[in-house]
Design a protein that fits this description.
By secondary structure, the chain is of the alpha+beta class. Helix content is 50%, strand content 16%. It is built from 25 helices and 27 strands. The strands form 5 sheets. It has a 7-stranded mixed sheet, with helices on both faces. Helix 11 runs antiparallel to helix 12 (392-405).
Length: 736
């Protein structure tokens, strides 16, 4: 049985063996579990945990997010296998608990306080030991009596030894856990360096030698703790957006019973069909439909829409929205874990966990680098001691410098730090990444293709031409009620009480049809309705009835205000822009003429758009496809990288790598700039990390740097990489 814990109980406080099986999510035979892993803070930890879980034949995927310390593991088989998986992680020396954002916040508070406490002790010890050492150094120049020098060195030792023993616990505990599990991590060489430096000083003090380095030991500890604390704070800041999203989940729900009473239950206890009361100021706990009350909802964090949304009976509401005005009673359409908010959280999680080529390269380097450190340090020790004629103490110090300076922490942080910061910044902008490598692919595009209706245009067409037959208008409005196409919505809005006929079906890219006496009722493209397209540039929908001539509805759809600027920005960056539309030739030609686009294609079926993208791919182009309709889904799925809108068809959102805020076309250019910026910063980080190790390890091997200097360099490299990663979240997304 594993040492797993229930949510809400800090792992360090409750050693009672408990099961995590109750937190397993099931999708048929597939099982998924999210765990909070305490003690994981370097690339070696990721490699050890993921590698151990992948050795289990039942496990299909294992990902550890270092910023959130969240381990997501998927397997096939029984849910009770979760305890064995949690036990396997704990056998590596880590403590696990079911993932809970509130629990993570509490754990961070404890970790932050412990680091500050250790840092304060290290600062006190370092400053006092340094003053004593300065007195010894000055005394050596001024013929201080040996007894006085020895007294000062003993005083320095009395201050340094307890300080190193107490303040060094964050490193010692982590290293000990790793060694007990038969592996290494970043803290093993650090702890070894601290222990060796202190041990050499104690031995020299006892034998009254000259190589007493208590000042170096305490200063080394202080610098290492400064680096560890700053790294902790930077990571906490970088994951802020993700945490806020997870914290949007309501913890309780006021459920209305049949007898009129209201009972507050855990949000997880609400299921489809329950009636839930949402008071003003409260967050909607589950997706559902309003059954009583009128109010305004703040949906900015859920859909990206900045304006409050008025709701009335029948309106759909999403979990995470905030009720701003009056009480609402809603009918739950799904449980908490099946809500839109939970889907968004899962998408963000998967986007963070998926790894692109840059992350895979960094992982491989970090994995093979750690086992190399110790033989190199041993060779340095033997080389200086046995061959260079240095004493054991100087040789050990040179080996310690190698251990500290060669830590691959900068390599391990180079890519994930950028991804977490960039993903969080885009999320704050309302842009949701559905694929983990979407930013990398977005940064590499050399061509852009837009759908027209609903993408370049507002998707809210106004009817400009009607047939004279009222019966035709009513039939068309009824069939249009079954479609989410913007033109169909406008048509249905003209006769809102018309309902779709029985047996209707949608033909993607063509229109709708329904069986009627004598044949079939059709609404859609001219060819679908066996009609000739109109000559003007307006969009159109045709209605075909058995035994009657097809009738035409004409529409006019305005360009989005941002369309011209977005297209011009992509073209100014040297990217060709094209339109792939299923609309009529005249309508597409008019939009292309206004935007100044020579490359446009009209009357395309879903398969035609996909074929066009395939042709471009064969020519070596990497195309960004932007669309919002059901007929765009195949092209979105087949593009090098794709983007849809939150207002688009569910199928198009599912097929896209990126989901943009409703109606915000400028967000696609913002995301592209953010992707380019993130790619540049990832390359910079990898180069910085590589240069650091290539340049400084030989310096340490040749004895040109002290352990303290090595600690300063190591901390500086990690901080440089992490602080550089924060630039990926700067407003504006950087230069294109």
């Amino acid at each position: 049985m594993s040492l797993a814990y229930v949510a809400g109980a800090p792992p360090m406080e409750d050693p009672t063996p408990r099961s995590v099986c109750g937190f397993v999510e099931s999708e048929g035979e597939a099982k998924r579990l999210h765990l909070l892993v305490a003690g994981a803070h370097c690339a070696a930890c990721i490699s050890a945990i993921e590698g151990r879980l992948r050795d289990d034949p039942a496990v299909t995927q294992a990902r550890l997010n270092l910023a959130l310390r969240r381990l997501s593991v998927e397997w096939r088989g029984e849910a009770r296998h979760a305890d064995a998986l949690a036990g396997a992680v704990e056998a590596l020396g880590y403590t696990v608990a079911p993932f809970d954002p509130a629990h993570l916040a509490r754990l961070d508070t404890q970790t932050g306080r412990a680091l500050v406490r250790a840092l304060a002790i290290a600062a006190f010890a370092s400053s006092n030991v340094m003053m004593l050492s300065l007195a010894v150094w000055a005394g050596q120049a001024q013929d201080m009596a040996p007894g006085t020098q020895l007294l000062f060195q003993w005083l320095a030792g009395l201050v340094a030894l307890p300080a190193v023993a107490f303040a060094g616990r964050p490193f010692f505990r982590s290293a000990l856990r790793a060694l007990r599990a038969g592996r290494t991590n970043i803290d093993v060489p650090i702890a070894l360096g601290l222990i060796l430096t202190t041990a050499i000083s104690v031995i020299e003090l006892l034998r009254q030698g000259r190589d007493v380095y208590f000042d170096s030991a305490t200063a080394l500890l202080f610098v290492l703790l400064v680096g560890r604390y700053l790294d902790f704070r930077v990571r906490a800041r970088s994951r802020g957006a993700i945490e806020r999203l997870l914290m949007l989940k309501a913890h309780g729900a006021a459920v209305c019973r049949a007898d009129g009473t209201v009972e507050v239950l855990p949000a997880e206890a609400v299921h489809a069909g329950m009636s839930v009361l949402v008071r003003p100021g409260e967050r909607v706990p589950v997706d559902g439909f309003v059954i009583d009350g009128r109010s305004e909802l703040d949906v900015a964090i859920v859909t990206g829409e900045s304006l409050p949304q008025a709701v009335a009976p029948g309106a759909r509401v999403l979990a995470g929205s905030v009720n701003r005005a009056a009480p609402l009673r809603i009918r739950a359409s799904a449980g908490v874990e099946d809500s839109h908010l939970a889907d968004v959280a899962r998408l963000v999680e998967r986007a963070e966990q998926a790894r692109g080529p840059a992350q895979a390269l960094a992982d491989r380097v970090a994995r093979i680098w750690t086992p190399i450190i110790h033989p190199v340090a041993l060779a340095t020790l033997l080389g200086w001691w046995l061959f260079a004629g240095a004493g054991l103490a100087p040789a050990l110090l040179h080996a310690v410098s190698v251990l500290i300076i060669a830590c691959p922490c900068a390599i391990g942080l180079a890519v994930p730090a950028v991804q977490v910061v960039a993903t969080g910044a885009l999320l704050r902008r309302g842009v949701l990444l559905r694929a983990g490598d979407a930013l990398e692919r977005l940064a590499g595009i050399d061509h852009v293709a837009f759908d027209k209706t609903g993408t370049l245009t507002c998707g809210q067409p106004r009817i400009t031409r009607w047939p004279d037959d009222p019966e035709a208008v009513r039939l068309a409005a009824g069939l249009a009620a079954a479609s989410h196409h913007p033109a169909a919505r406008a048509l249905h809005a003209a006769v809102p009480d018309a309902g779709p006929p029985a047996g209707w079906a949608e033909v993607p890219g063509e229109g709708l049809r329904a069986p009627v006496p004598g044949g079939e009722l059709r609404l859609g493209r001219a060819a679908f309705c066996r009609a000739e397209p109109g000559e003007d540039g307006d969009s159109e929908i045709w209605l075909a009835r058995p035994g009657r001539a097809p009738v035409r509805f004409g529409f006019e759809d305005a360009l989005r205000p941002q369309a011209g600027a977005v297209v011009a920005a992509f073209r100014a960056a040297g990217l060709p822009v094209a339109i792939l539309s299923g609309d009529r030739l005249a309508a597409v030609a008019r939009v292309a003429r206004v935007l100044g686009l020579p490359d446009w294609h009209a009357g395309l079926l879903p398969g035609d758009k996909l074929e066009r993208l395939d042709a471009w791919r064969r020519q070596g182009w990497r195309v960004l496809m932007v669309g919002d309709g059901l007929n765009d889904a195949p092209a979105l799925a087949g593009a090098h990288v794709s983007a849809s809108f939150a207002h688009g068809a569910p199928a198009s959102q599912s097929a896209a790598d990126i989901v943009l805020p409703p109606g915000d076309l400028a967000a696609v250019h913002h995301a592209w700039r953010a992707g380019r910026r993130a790619h540049r910063i990832i390359v910079q980080n990898l180069v910085l990390a590589a240069l650091y190790n290539v340049a400084l390890i030989p310096v340490a091997i040749f004895g040109l740097v002290t352990p303290l200097g090595a600690a300063v360099a190591m901390a500086a490299s990690s901080l440089t990489v992490t602080l550089n990663a924060l630039r990926a979240g700067e407003p504006g997304g950087g230069r294109g």
